[in-house]
Amino acid sequence: MSRPTPTPPLTPQFCFDTRVLRDFLRLSRSSIDDSISTTLNALVTPASTSPFDPRSTAVRSPPYPRPPIPAPTTRTFLETVLFPSWSSRASVIQYCTSVATSPDPEDPESLERETLNRRDAERVVDERLDPYSARFFPREARTEMLASVLRNEVAVEGIIRTRTWGIVADRCEGVGPNWEGEFDRWKESTERKTNTG
């Protein structure tokens, strides 16, 4: 069975390095969500004989209808692999969102950006001589760039979870149609176990 992607050490530097942030999210999604059908197929034991008997492949069974994955197996997969991966990504996105919305006194480009903005405000523009001279693309602060990346990643996360849950609900017994409710119940039970244990 797949293992959930562990949460990396969360620091502001991790968030501001958007390449590393995106790589973590992409790796976690590809190892769990993108391969969900393969993972679910692995949950069903295909061979009924041990050791392998070549005669078991003499008759090919049709791919549909597939037998549903039993509820206990499904629950184990959800609670030990899928939901922890989702939770890890959610905690990274939540932490980096708090970094993006906080003041950033250590921004190495803030002084340079302010100088450019002041210089642009003092610039005299004659659009008759150069119609493109009025264009000015102010440089964004790194918190603004991070916020933009996170907005995209939140949207991607929602799409991926919906798609993954559709496949899980189609293949597994005892799964509700709404991933948000199931995920919230799992988080609450995990928090209760953590607080009491």
From TrEMBL:
Record field: compositional bias (Pro residues): 62-71
Cellular component, GO annotation: mitochondrial intermembrane space
Pfam families: MIX23
Record-linked InterPro entries: MIX23
Region (Disordered): 45-71
UniProt similarity note: Belongs to the MIX23 family.
Descriptive protein name: Caffeine-induced death protein Cid2
Source organism of this protein record: Exophiala oligosperma
